[in-house]
Amino acid sequence: MINPDAKRVVRIQLRLTLLAMLLGLVAADAPLNAAMSVLLGGLCAIIPALVYIRIAGTLQRGDPAAIMRSHYRAAAAKFILTLLLFGGVLLFFKDLSVPGLFGGFIAATSAYWFGLLIKN
User: Fold this and answer.
1) 77-104 burial string, b = 16+ CB within 10 Å, else e?
2) What does the alpha-carbon distance between residue 37 and residue 101 come to, in Å, rounded to a whole number?
3) Which residues cross the membrane (predicted)?
4) Which pLDDT score, from 0 to 100, does residue 116 have?
5) Which of 59, 90, 78 is nearest to 9 (CA)?
6) Helical H runs in the chain?
7) How far apart are CA 69 and CA 43, in angstroms?
8) Nearest to 35 by CA among 19, 21, 49, 17
9) Is the pLDDT score of 27 beyond 90?
10) Which DSSP symbol is given to 105?
11) pLDDT over 90 for what percent of the chain?
């Protein structure tokens, strides 16, 4: 079972990514390129967050040291996956808006802060 707080943060990440995509569609010179870049940036934050939830959520109760080890493994996997996703996006998508990519990533990552402020 996924922690309800983790679900809430991922939903906020998705909403912020979609909001940033809309801003990219409205404000950019090449709106489709910017929106796709923002989406890819958001996915570079959302997919590793889901992997973290999957790995760290396997141990809900038990030995505190084992729980910490699972969180360390989850954080390492999240970091490595984030690097691989950014590398893959930068390697395979040549016509990319780099500010849009990082804007989408920052928008999705800011969901952790909004998750502390917003209680649904």
Assistant:
1) bbeebbeebbeebeeeeeebbeebbebb
2) 5
3) 12-28, 34-53, 74-93, 99-118
4) 77
5) 78
6) 4-27, 31-56, 64-92, 98-109, 111-117
7) 26
8) 21
9) no
10) H
11) 61
**68 has a pLDDT exceeding 60:** yes
Please give the pLDDT value at position 61: 77
* Residues contacting residue 78 through CB under 8 Å, at least 6 positions apart: 48, 49, 51, 52
Per-residue model confidence (pLDDT) at position 1 = 56
What are the structure tokens assigned to 19, written together? 């909001």
The Cα 71–Cα 61 span in angstroms is: 13
Residue range 74-91: average pLDDT?
Answer: 96
Copy the structure tokens of residue 63.
């030995």
Whether residue 103 contacts residue 35, with contact meaning beta carbons closer than 8 Å, is answered with: no
For the record, the structure tokens of 33 come out as: 């390129």
Average pLDDT score, the chain? 90
Angle among Cα 54, 80, 74 to the nearest 5 degrees reads 30
Dihedrals φ, ψ of 10, to 5°? Answer: -65, -40
CA distances from 94 to 19, 47, 82, 102 (A): 24, 21, 19, 15
